[in-house]
Amino acid sequence: MNLVVLACAIGLLGAVGAKPSGHGAWQERFITDSQGRALILYGLNTSSSSKYSADGMPWIKQADVAAEYNTLGTDFVRYLIQWSDVEPEPGVYDDHYLAEVRQRIGWYQAQGYQVLLDMHQDVYGAAVGGNGAPGWATDSGGLAATVQSPWEMTYVQPGVTHAYDEFWGTRTDHPEYQQQYVAAWTHVASYFARNNTVLGYDLMNEPWGGSVQGPAFETGPLAHLYQNAIDAIRTVDPNHWIFVEPEAATTNYGLPSALPKLDDPRTATPGAEARIGYAPHLYPAPIDSGGTYSGTDQYLTDRTLASWQTQVQRTAARMDAPVLMGEWGLDATQDGAHLYVDHIQTLLDTMMIGSAYWSSDPGSWSPWKAPGKPSDIADVLATAYPRAIAGQPVDFSYDKSTLELTMDWNDKAGVTGSTDVYLPPGDFPDGGDVQLNGDYKAKWDASRHILSLTVKATPGVTHHLVITPTVPGVNESSIG
């Protein structure tokens, strides 16, 4: 996130904003599992605490992961790692740190989660007041890098700009920095290449271009780094998904991205599709800066959301990449917070994409008041959603006022397995009543609140599903 463009972002929304499109397919590419099923990932970021802990680990214990599933029904986590922890000295990788990460991935595996490893950075690195890059890979030129308030303004401190310019090659003193960043990612990918709980890799959190901004940054240094990292990772891991983020200072606020299409070497294998995803963040300016979801702030926020949807869809189409919202959130103690979460969940359903809420750390932005103690926003975040769709998604939505989940999808060659839907116990305490055209088999896992539907393939027919809460003794066709 960055506030440098806050004023111009709000001013430009009138020019680039658009009403969100209605339900219906707008994309052909989805994140898929080994069975070819489209995944709609829904979860949290874990976690901001790892950016400052001595061992680089988040606050969670294994019991907290179990509580996360039991409270929210999530199936996904964006797990923060840092370059400084992976490579504390040049060319020296800390496999003990990666083993600790692997242990925590195991906790998520036990709950049926997918894990995205995010190489996190904010304000470059600790040596200039941020986090991410190791001190040995930081050259501030001896310039001031004083932490500012709000913290995002630290990005434009002279020493921070100098450090980014050295990394991106705008200055030419340290061409080795990018090479070592790519090598560090290659080591991480090699370590986790055979871990099936790992969904993939988010190459850099919220990139910032230093003195080079906008399309010149995204189509130049950023795209160059991404392509080099993708090429290197594919030498050790041909299968996991690789996610790229746009420049945060514009895209977070609903402005356009110029990020180009990137090549995936795995497509050189006959029949193999690219596995590169687009992972923008969403922080509307009023919400990000502590505003409420009411009055003028709500109007400006809604304009941002409409523009964000339009711009993300355009970029994803250009890149031929599925979308995963890597971060979104707010201070849930502010007025209108519950309504805002409902609005974002509707946006996610409309776009048929997954997301990771920021973040799991207990506090005002979290579903936890304290470890093991849900906050008020937890009940709002817990929602019905399709976890996996055995075919090509066409449309889905969940109406919280009527507790009706609807979904349409088409059969797709090569896709196997069931269509799985999570039904939160607060809305579906006794399971769900199913209306679905065609022949199907249903299985209800009451302990995990997952309804699995195996549908007989019918070429040319759109499967139409409606699920409503079972009323004991009334809905005879209920699954519960």
Walk me through what this model shows.
Pfam families: Cellulase, Glyco_hydro_5_C. This is Cellulase family glycosylhydrolase. Belongs to the glycosyl hydrolase 5 (cellulase A) family. It comes from Streptacidiphilus cavernicola. The chain is of the alpha/beta class. It folds into 2 domains: 29-286 and 318-328 and 341-382, TIM Barrel (Alpha-Beta Barrel), CATH 3.20.20.80; 397-479, Immunoglobulin-like (Sandwich). The protein is built from 12 helices and 21 strands. It has a 9-stranded parallel beta sheet. α1 packs across α10 (295-319) and α6 crosses α7. The longest helix is centred in the middle third of the chain and has 25 residues, at 295-319. The two termini are 44 Å apart.
Mean pLDDT value: 93
| Strands, total number | 21
Widest sheet: strand ordering: 7-6-5-4-3-2-10-9-8
Instruction: Kindly provide the radius of gyration, computed on alpha-carbon positions and rounded to a whole number of angstroms.
Output: 22 Å
Instruction: Describe the global form.
Output: globular
Individual helix count: 12
Q: Might you state the CATH topology name of the largest domain?
A: TIM Barrel
Number of domains: 2
Residue share in β-strands: 15-25%
